[in-house]
């Protein structure tokens, strides 16, 4: 078994971090949050000779899930996640895309919903699933305990946190998710997030201005 590597493809006008997680020896992997720009995603996968096994979603916002249906059809992949509480968001992707004048994004229904405590994997790499509502009601995160690595979606950023002014968002619920689900993963855990650079959980716990007193 090789190590999990991560490649990021910024997609949509929101520059969302569509992430390819893959084994550096077998080249098998999954794609997390293909929000759009599917042609670019497929070209990148082919150029890097990645064998995708599934699509994982952290939550249902258009910039994270808007390209999932097309990618599923073109590559024959199953869509896994998020939690079922994000169904209303996934059903309104096309409506939201019109609001932002973005074309090509589609509503999507996952093949498998995820619950807190589930586990997902590709090859020999297993990720624990944690339901972390607040930014979106059905938001989940993925944690690889063996490699001390997490994909946090839009729950926590480097120096910031997910916005909570969108439908289904709640500021205190998000803080509770960070306190009760993210912090216990460990200070030395590195993370990728949905926008911008990643970091380490301990650094955010100590220095993130949105988390003071948490």
Task: Give a summary of the structure in a few sentences.
The chain has 214 residues and is α+β, with helices and mostly antiparallel strands.
Task: Please tag this protein with its features.
single chain; 214 residues; alpha+beta; six-stranded mixed β-sheet; five-stranded mixed β-sheet; 24% helix; globular
Structural class label: alpha+beta
Helix content: 10-25%
Instruction: Please write the string of helix (H) and strand (E) elements.
Output: EEEHEHHEHHEEEEEEHEEH
Uncertain segments are none
Strand neighbour order, sheet with most strands? 6-7-8-9-12-13
Beta content: 25-35%
Q: What would your notes on this structure say?
A:
With 214 residues, this protein is an alpha+beta fold. Helices cover 24% and strands 27% of the residues. It is built from seven helices and 13 strands. The protein has helices at residues 38-47, 62-65, 68-75, 87-90, 93-99, 171-182, 201-207, and strands at 4-11, 16-23, 28-32, 51-56, 79-80, 119-122, 125-131, 140-144, 149-151, 156-157, 160-161, 190-192, 199-200. Strand 8 (140-144) and strand 9 form a beta hairpin.
């Amino acid at each position: 078994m090789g190590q999990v590597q991560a490649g990021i493809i910024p997609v949509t006008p929101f520059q969302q971090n569509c992430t390819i997680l893959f084994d550096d020896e077998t080249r098998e992997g999954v794609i997390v949050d293909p929000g759009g720009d599917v042609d670019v995603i497929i070209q990148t996968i082919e150029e890097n000779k990645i064998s995708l096994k599934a699509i994982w979603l952290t939550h249902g916002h258009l910039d994270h899930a808007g390209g999932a249906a097309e990618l599923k059809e073109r590559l024959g992949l199953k869509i896994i996640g998020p939690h079922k509480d994000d169904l209303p968001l996934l059903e309104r992707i096309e409506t939201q895309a019109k609001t932002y004048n973005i074309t090509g994004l589609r509503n999507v229904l996952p093949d498998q919903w995820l619950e807190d405590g589930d586990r997902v994997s590709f090859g020999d790499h297993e990720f624990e699933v944690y339901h972390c509502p607040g930014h979106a009601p059905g938001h989940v995160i993925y944690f690889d305990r063996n490699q001390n690595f997490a994909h946090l979606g839009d729950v926590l950023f480097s120096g910031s946190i997910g916005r909570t002014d969108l439908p289904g968002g709640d500021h205190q619920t998000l803080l509770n998710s960070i306190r009760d689900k993210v912090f216990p993963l460990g200070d030395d855990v590195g993370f990728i997030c949905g926008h911008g650079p990643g970091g380490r959980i301990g650094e955010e716990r100590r220095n993130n201005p949105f988390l003071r007193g948490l």
